[in-house]
Amino acid sequence: MQAWVLAVGVLLMLVKFVTWRITRSNAVLSDALESIVNVVAAGFALYSLTLAAKPKDREHPYGHGKVEFISALLEGSLVAAAGVIIIYRATEALFTGVEVHNIGVGLVLVAATGGVNLVMGLMLRKQGRRSHSLTMEAGGVHLLADAWTTAALVAGLLAIRITGLHWLDSMLALGFAVLIIWQGVRMVRRSVGGIMDETDMAVAAELVKIIDAHRKPEWIDMHNFRVIKFGSTLHIDCHVTVPWYFTVEAGHQEISELAALVKKHSGREVEFFIHIDPCIPRSCTVCQLYDCPVRQKPFVRRMPWTLESVLADRKHGVE
Question: What does each C-alpha distance from 312 to 223, 251, 306 come to in angstroms?
């Protein structure tokens, strides 16, 4: 899929630059300059997806998935840089004056490129979400944004053709530049967060909800819950409290069942690093093992596991 995106991106870039040569429109030039970003980003994305798919090795015990964040960082930086260049060109044109030519031909060519970007963007975003690939999803979102930008560009060229106000071209380019820079900054922000192991709270909350809905009485408590993304793989570490009298084998069996549960219901590739904690007297108040032979305090109530409660690094209980 990514190889097709790269090939189509090169073709669309050439069409846009031909359109700019025909029309001499700064707005069309801004669209063409962003196409360079699309091609470079698609090329690096293809490489990063190939690298991310490689199995773990001695030097990369967590796999190669982090390269996807680097790919998104590069794409976002290039997008923002293209926006700055467009602002320079459009501002210069406002003072020097540029007349747009052959608007009819330009409209047809620009509209065609926008339609292709719309189809490719929808396909890439859908596949990225299905495979939990930040690189593919970011590429799809970028192409969709390019398609909407092209739609606005078509509307702007129509307005120029109807009114004859050629300065609208530069104003349109400035508007595109602001939108492009905003998109680039968002990509950079998301990729930097991933590189710094920032928790995706929405994903973490979904996982906690799955565990809480299927938890066993033997899983007395869970805390210090953390999620790190390595490409499409989630690495989860947490502390799970089990009865203190469980053997190592019994404790391991409970943890294995918990990990299998998350993998089954989340549909994600998940790696668990779970620390087993023995229960303490305070745990009795939330423990649902009603026939526990060593209970020291009466059961008070079931403690719901929510993202807010399991993030804390302390065992739970009811005072």
Answer: 6, 22, 11
Residue 138: other Cβ atoms inside 10 A:
27
Confidence band of 219 (pLDDT split at 50, 70, 90): very high
Q: Sort 305 into a burial class: Cβ within 10 Å, 0-12 / 13-18 / 19+.
A: buried
Following DSSP, what letter does each residue of 111-179 receive, concatenated? HHHHHHHHHHHHHHHHHHHHHT-HHHHHHHHHHHHHHHHHHHHHHHHHHHHHH--THHHHHHHHHHHHH
pLDDT digits over 9-62, tens only?
788 888 888 888 888 777 777 777 777 777 777 777 777 777 766 777 777 766
Dihedral pair phi/psi, residue 315, rounded to 5°: -75, 150
Q: In terms of Cα–Cα distance, which of 239, 240, 220 is closest to 297?
A: 220
CATH of domain 2-195: 1.20.1510.10
Distance CA 283, CA 294 (A): 12
Per-domain residue ranges of the chain: 2-195, 201-311
Domain 201-311 has CATH 3.40.50.10490: no
Q: How many CB atoms lie within 10 A of CB 291?
A: 6
DSSP class per residue in 55-99: PP-SS-TT-STTHHHHHHHHHHHHHHHHHHHHHHHHHHHHHH---
30's tokens: 């801004």
CA distances from 163 to 30, 102, 156, 267 (A): 22, 15, 10, 54
In the chain, the amino acid numbered 221 is D
In degrees rounded to 5, what are phi and psi of residue 141? -65, -40
Q: What is the pLDDT of residue 117?
A: 80
